[in-house]
Amino acid sequence: xxxxxxxxxxxxxxxxxxxxxxxxxxxxxxxxxxxxxxxxxxxxxxxxxxxxx
Length: 53
What we know:
Elements: H1 2-27, H2 36-40, H3 46-52
């Protein structure tokens, strides 16, 4: 039972860290353009090929 004295606060602390990380990601715009990365693969990047020559 003594281990619960350590595990419960540790679990609450790690949950709080996860919540803070999620809130930071929301405020910094990580979830703004969810479809952009999926559609970006469909575009032809001819400009990149010209720069390599």
